[in-house]
Design brief:
Layout (H helix, E strand, L loop, with lengths): L1 H19 L20 E3 L2 E11 L4 H4 L16 E12 L5 E2 L6 E4 L5 E2 L17 E2 L4 E2 L5 H4 L5 E8 L8 E6 L5 E7 L2
Antiparallel strand pairs: 1-2, 2-3, 3-8, 3-9, 4-7, 5-6, 5-10, 10-11
């Protein structure tokens, strides 16, 4: 009986050591998977990941904070439109400092070719706003210890106003454009 206990104890220790060795490679923080299997895409030298994308309800306490920082002349969505938030994460895996794509380099396109562009968000009024940042090697956006990093979405916000007809024109795709306005990466959206 004692030999059996010793065997179980040794087996347990070996299993614990084996498990503790798993995943010791540095890995970026992931927050949410919006159906894209947490796939990284490369656009230029930066890798991007969709944290989550979803429609936003301006009357919801949680969602209303994502609508702060819009220009004063921004009109609310009409009866056939809605706010749609895309929350992104980026990682500079190169050995030199690199800029992330500015909000103007992102757009959403549906199967009918309708294109939606993000609305400008003032990062001084909205701590979730995606901004182009200079990332040092292995640095991420949103930066650690920021509101966006610890927020419910874990990503920087790109805000779109889309037509509700987009539901009939799925799948929608987020495009990241680079130099000369060329599409460098695409990510399917879970709409």
């Amino acid at each position: 009986m004692r030999a059996r206990r010793v065997t179980i104890l040794i087996s347990s220790l070996l299993l614990a050591v084996g498990i503790s060795g798993c995943g010791n490679k540095p890995h970026p923080r992931h927050h949410a998977d919006a159906g894209n299997d947490a796939t990284y895409v490369f656009a230029g030298p930066i890798s991007y990941q969709l944290e989550i994308s979803r429609e936003l309800n301006g009357f919801s306490t949680l969602d209303s904070q994502y609508l702060h920082g819009l220009p004063a002349n921004t009109t609310a969505p009409g009866p056939d439109q809605e706010w749609y938030g895309v929350f992104m994460w980026a990682w500079n895996q190169t050995k030199t400092a690199q800029y992330t794509a500015p909000p103007t380099d992102f757009d959403i396109v549906d199967t009918q070719g309708n294109m939606y562009h993000p609305y400008p968000i003032d990062p001084n009024d909205n701590p979730y706003a995606w901004t182009s940042e200079l990332l040092r090697p292995n640095q991420t956006e949103p930066i650690p210890d920021s509101t966006a990093f610890f927020g419910p979405t874990g990503g920087g916000e790109l805000l779109f106003k889309i037509n509700t007809t987009a539901y009939a024109n799925r799948p929608l795709t987020l495009q990241i454009r680079g130099s000369q306005n060329q599409v460098e990466a695409t990510i399917p959206l879970d709409l």
